[in-house]
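Quick note —
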Amino acid sequence: MKMPELPKRKPKAQSPGSGSASRVQAPAFAQDLYKDMRDRRLIIPAVALLVAIVAVPIVLSSPSESSVTPPAPVADQDAVAVEPAVLAVQEIGVRDYRERLSELEQKNPFGSRFDPKPDKNLEDADDTQAGGAPAASGSSVGGSPEPTTGGSGTPTPGTTPPTAGTPPEPMIVVSRIDAFTKIVGREQSDTHENVHSGDVLPSRRAPVVLFLRNVDAGTAAQFIVSRNVSNVNGEGTCKPGKTNCEFLTLKEGDTAYLRYADGHRYALRVTDIRFEHIPESEFDQSD
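Predicted structure written out below.
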């Protein structure tokens, strides 16, 4: 006998929220990480680290408690009372520099060693003059002889009384030469003695050369040649050249021949070269 077949009931579809929690499986990566941390006992430290990461910013953002202000130091009454007096005593101010230098001079260990010793002759002379006795004639204080004077009070011939307190006048070394000039082809010649720097030769009407100075340690004389000179021959040295000579140098005894613009040919010979010492007051007038 065939049994009747009962109709099979289809399972009802479950809603999305019912029983999903028990059937949802975590990814394999998360399961492996969880098992690994569980075996290494790192779950608790990881949870604590996460809590700290969240809690620390919240704690730091909360207002901090008011800081306790340290108590102000209490000044000692005795010190407050003494302080103005101490400040008043220390107000010295700026001292004069002479007082400070005087203290340094007192500490100088070499000051007394280099003091000039008094001259015994000067002291004796001062004592004699203070007592009213005249000084010995013919001798000065210190033993040096003095020029004797005649009855009229003038110094005797041959002696020059020194001028007290007047320094000797400085001397200046200047260049001097003697020269000889003439026009070639004529008998007349001119001798020029004691020629100064700046003098023209042979004359101002025919200024062929101008004496400049002595050169080469006083062994040669240097001249400035006039632009009206067309040619220079003879002895001596011309710079830059004899056809355009601007500076002519002649030694003692040298003779040079210069063609001037007036058509004449002048001969110039240096006969003496020397230096002289003159007082400074006479330098501006002579040179």
